[in-house]
Amino acid sequence: MLDTLLQTVVGLTTVTLTASLFVLGRGNRAIRFLTDVTAPEASAAASVSIIVAARNEADTIEPALRSLLAQDHPAVEVIVVNDRSTDATGDVLARIQRAYASKLKVITVTTLPPGWLGKNHAHWVGAQAAQGEFLLFTDADIVMHPSTVRRAVAYAVTERLDHLTVGPEVHLPGPLLTAFLGTFTMCFALFVRPWRARDPRSSAFVGVGAFNLVRRLAYECAGTHAVIRMRPDDDMKLGKIIKRAGGRQELVAGKHLLAVVWYRSLGELIRGLEKNAFAGLDYSLLMAVCGPLTLWGLFLVPYLGLALTAGRLWWLNLLNVVLGLALYADNSLRHGVKWRHLPLFPVTVALLMFIIWHATLRTLIGQGVTWRGTHYPLAELKTNRV
Questions:
Q1: What percent of the chain has pLDDT above 70?
Q2: Domains of the chain as residue ranges with CATH
């Protein structure tokens, strides 16, 4: 009886992994590359306001900002909102502004209004000052190829999109963090299914903080950042409110066109994901518990099965180990992960489980999140459900 039950459970794992491999493989291959875009003349007249929220970015903002100022799209303005920085960010911005006075606008925020996250407020402030037909929300550490904005606007105009989000080329130091990137993107893709965001009949939506290009009209119709003012997962929720308002959106891959060093150490990775891991699950304790347990059942239990079972069950567990590795490899090799990182897959699954539970506990125990020096109460965060 027990053997039959175990075979049923292991068999269901096999079916789930096989279906996931098919769905993710097909979905990832449906995502287009921005490098394949050539800019039609019709898009040259579309003006773009690039909006950067910066807080204590003195060490990273200069190369990112210079790459924005070097964009070859003919109608670009760059707006940096210096959000209460306490380091030398303001000095760096002032020096660059002297060289690009006609193209760079710097807005300094000294106080944060109640009921806002700092970054969301900074993006909203930048949008109010922007003149462009398109608004590009990006981060202060994203370095772009000179043709990135031109290609993105051309694609948005040609495809009649209201929201185009671009996945950056992500760089991480060391084998563990690089391998973790593969696991993170795999789970993100299976959970979000970003390739379906372009289907107006689907409820799927997507947004990436590195590059959210939106039509001003669609942004205003969706309610602007005021609707998501207390969302730590503002990039995804921006995509949700635009899709909900009837906007057309799509995710494309930005390989070779925009890049970011995501986190520089394991500790920085864990701390960085603290702010939005629980928010990304809509503050659902059930999802925070069951999500990691699902990862454990699909990707780690088969390894235990190899040590604890024999006969047919052992072979089924071996098949599930292979299917899990195949799923990881098929997704991750396109994100900079190498074949030599594959043995780290079970370690990175355990790390992701820990990060989700750690972030959830920290948020619950601390009754909120602390982000860039500001504490945001959990009760206020929960009221902004989108």
A1: 98
A2: 2-27+277-383 (no CATH), 31-168+208-263 (3.90.550.10)
